[in-house]
Write a structure and sequence with these properties.
- The protein is α+β, with helices and mostly antiparallel strands and about 110 residues long.
- The chain has one domain.
- It has three helices and four strands.
- The protein has a four-stranded antiparallel beta sheet with strand order 1-4-2-3, with helices on one face.
- Strand 2 and strand 3 form a beta hairpin.
- The longest helix has 21 residues.
- It is elongated, with a radius of gyration of 21 Å.
- InterPro entries: DUF6172.
- It holds the Pfam family DUF6172.
């Protein structure tokens, strides 16, 4: 989804337009996550870009997207560009940490005494 949202429209409340834009993004994400996953994919990830225009958009993590929208529009911007593109995510195993196993064993020994 690549879209420019206008926030200063004649006869419409700016805050409602901002809420409608956020709702539109959430609706897109929900629809994408509802699709069946391909066999080699663990989850759907989202690559996001945000800016006042398409040319000035910078990459933003999905978890920080709505906070970034609030920050961008707080100054009274008349529009913002949001790009949310679905990508395939693969889970990776955490690296083995021997010190964590030693700490767990020490905790178990302490509880036994």
């Amino acid at each position: 989804m690549k879209k420019t949202y206008l926030l200063n429209v004649e006869g419409k409340n700016r805050d409602r337009l901002l809420d409608a834009a956020k709702h539109d993004i959430r609706k897109y994400v929900k629809r994408e996550r509802a699709r069946p996953l391909p066999a080699e994919v663990d989850f759907f990830d989202f690559n996001c870009r945000l800016g006042s225009s398409q040319e000035t958009a910078v990459e933003v993590h999905f978890a920080a997207l709505f906070t970034a929208i609030d920050t961008l529009t707080k100054d009274g911007a008349s529009q913002f560009y949001a790009e949310v593109v679905t990508s395939h995510g693969q889970r990776t195993a955490k690296p083995y940490d021997a010190s964590r196993d030693a700490q767990a064993q020490a905790d178990a020994d302490y509880q036994d005494n």
